Amino acid sequence: MRIGVVTFPGTLDDRDALRAVRIAGAEAVPLWHGDDDLQEVDAVVLPGGFSYGDYLRAGAISRFAPVMEKVVDAAKGGIPVLGICNGFQILCETHLLPGSMIKNAHRSFICRDQPLRVENNRTAWTTAYEKDQVIRIPLKNQDGQFVADAKTLDELEGEGRVVFRYTEGATHGPVGFEENPNGSWNGIAGITNEYGNVVGLMPHPEHAVESGFGPDEPGRGTRTGTDGLGFFTSVLTALTA
Amino acid sequence: MPRVVVHVMPKPEILDPQGKAVAGALPRLGFEGIASVRQGKRFELEVEGAVTDEVLATIREAAATLLSNPVIEDVVQVEVEGEAAH
């Protein structure tokens, strides 16, 4: 299986995403923002970072990159697409996912190991998890506050399209943001489209795939967390099903 | 070159963290009596040739497509510099 990872100018986490794909057992294919070619990949990851310096709005310019036209077409055709952090912001700007991200409500950059509750384990990227399982993966963002109008929120909640919700157990954070790190509405950390092939979330599964380099796991040791690997094994399951 | 100015503001129902930060800084600097601040964006677009209705329509479309994200922002004004074209 070939999983592509797109690099935009200002992307930061493409190499970790490529590495996560390889650790999960797939072939990692680097994709370039300026190419209108997906190189026949079976799935696409839009990684984190600050593409185009977050100019205008996070993800606003990347949306119009030549490769994104192909990603949008492929996503509408059903291939699995995962947007992480800036990748999630790009998916919202393309309208593959509803809503948008604005600055964290406390107005500070936040970086911590973040517990998430898996609320939908039927998407292409989450079948390796149990429903309501709590996973811990890194979170690091400036514009991470998920917002949407009331109708969209009702649809997301009613159709079970909230995939991850922030939950308690982080070791630190600004006062009032112990559980919800950025003021996201309904504590939403990640969502999916109506078909479950497109998933976006703010926290970073690709940074939690190998013991020794992952988040600290209370009671299990420092940097031992590998809870993010399930995203990448899930998509392999989806592709071989 | 004639210039068209586009104003974009965060939607009223969306919390504006930047405006809030500015509002918090004002009294610390001794600027009293300001109840709230909302921060938006101003774009100045220079136009080749005259600003016709077609040009304005194109700019309005660009404003809705790229300059603003309708989920979180409103295009509150598109004006030809010197005259209001709402």
Automatic annotation (TrEMBL), chain A:
Compartment annotation: Cytoplasm
Highest taxon in the source lineage: Bacteria
UniProt-listed Pfam families: GATase_5
GO cellular component term of the entry, any: cytoplasm
Residues at the active site: C85 (nucleophile), H204, E206
Keywords assigned: ATP-binding, Cytoplasm, Glutamine amidotransferase, Hydrolase, Ligase, Nucleotide-binding, Purine biosynthesis
Coarse class of the protein's main subcellular location: cytoplasm
EC number in record: 6.3.5.3, 3.5.1.2
Example of a GO biological process term: 'de novo' IMP biosynthetic process
GO MF entry, a single one: phosphoribosylformylglycinamidine synthase activity
Pathway assigned in UniProt: Purine metabolism; IMP biosynthesis via de novo pathway; 5-amino-1-(5-phospho-D-ribosyl)imidazole from N(2)-formyl-N(1)-(5-phospho-D-ribosyl)glycinamide: step 1/2
Catalysed reactions listed for this entry: L-glutamine + H2O = L-glutamate + NH4(+); N(2)-formyl-N(1)-(5-phospho-beta-D-ribosyl)glycinamide + L-glutamine + ATP + H2O = 2-formamido-N(1)-(5-O-phospho-beta-D-ribosyl)acetamidine + L-glutamate + ADP + phosphate + H(+)
Function: Part of the phosphoribosylformylglycinamidine synthase complex involved in the purines biosynthetic pathway. Catalyzes the ATP-dependent conversion of formylglycinamide ribonucleotide (FGAR) and glutamine to yield formylglycinamidine ribonucleotide (FGAM) and glutamate. The FGAM synthase complex is composed of three subunits. PurQ produces an ammonia molecule by converting glutamine to glutamate. PurL transfers the ammonia molecule to FGAR to form FGAM in an ATP-dependent manner.
Protein name: Phosphoribosylformylglycinamidine synthase subunit PurQ
Top-level taxonomy: Bacteria, Bacillati, Actinomycetota, Actinomycetes, Micrococcales
From TrEMBL, chain B:
Lineage start: Bacteria, Bacillati, Actinomycetota, Actinomycetes, Micrococcales
One Pfam family linked to the record: PurS
Source species, domain of life: Bacteria
Primary role: Part of the phosphoribosylformylglycinamidine synthase complex involved in the purines biosynthetic pathway. Catalyzes the ATP-dependent conversion of formylglycinamide ribonucleotide (FGAR) and glutamine to yield formylglycinamidine ribonucleotide (FGAM) and glutamate. The FGAM synthase complex is composed of three subunits. PurQ produces an ammonia molecule by converting glutamine to glutamate. PurL transfers the ammonia molecule to FGAR to form FGAM in an ATP-dependent manner.
EC number from the UniProt entry: 6.3.5.3
Keywords from the UniProt entry: ATP-binding, Cytoplasm, Ligase, Nucleotide-binding, Purine biosynthesis
Name the record gives this protein: Phosphoribosylformylglycinamidine synthase subunit PurS
Family: Belongs to the PurS family.
Database matches in PANTHER family: PHOSPHORIBOSYLFORMYLGLYCINAMIDINE SYNTHASE SUBUNIT PURS (PTHR34696)
Any Gene Ontology CC annotation: cytoplasm
Primary gene name: purS
